[in-house]
Write a structure and sequence with these properties.
Blueprint (H helix, E strand, L loop, with lengths): L8 H26 L22 H24 L17 H24 L5 H17 L1 H6 L5
Keywords: Membrane, Transmembrane, Transmembrane helix
């Protein structure tokens, strides 16, 4: 599995960014699921006119799962490195621990989520560039050599 050397500083920064996005995703997702009209987030369903959705319920569920729970699971995995086999089904980098691969996936998921949001909603918020940058930083930190080597499996 992964080596037992000291945890690289970049791993702590990576986990911090994942926890930041996870907390934001849970907050935003919960607010949209419990108030699908967008009122808790001070948003109008009118911004959904160019999307396939009429309320924020489905986007809220997606936000809660993929930008809330998923990054928190990945952050936990980066510290614990559980030897689960089921995530390996989705691990394209078989020489890396699944949590490293999922961290890389998540950076791209976050960037795509923000871009789809901008394209579909034509909505501009200060949070959009913040989270797009966060997605890029997650991808970059995941690819740092010290992080890459720390999560390399010893087969």
């Amino acid at each position: 599995m992964a080596n037992n050397t000291r945890v690289p500083l970049m791993v702590y920064l990576l986990v911090l960014l994942l926890v930041f996005t996870g907390i934001g995703g849970i907050y935003g997702g919960y607010a949209l699921v419990t108030a699908p009209d967008g009122s808790k987030m001070m948003m109008s369903t009118e911004i959904l006119s160019n999307s396939p959705f009429h309320t924020f319920l489905i986007p809220g569920i997606i936000l809660l799962l993929f930008n809330g729970l998923l990054p928190l699971l990945i952050a936990w995995g980066l510290f614990v490195r559980p030897p689960w086999q089921w995530p390996e089904l989705f691990n394209l980098y078989h020489k890396q621990h699944w949590c490293w691969t999922f961290s890389l996936y998540y950076g791209f998921i976050l960037i795509i989520w923000i871009n789809v949001q901008i394209i579909m909603l034509s909505y501009s918020s200060l949070l959009q560039p913040v989270f797009a940058l966060t997605g890029a930083l997650i991808s970059i930190l995941t690819l740092f050599p010290s992080v890459f080597h720390y999560y390399r499996k010893h087969l």
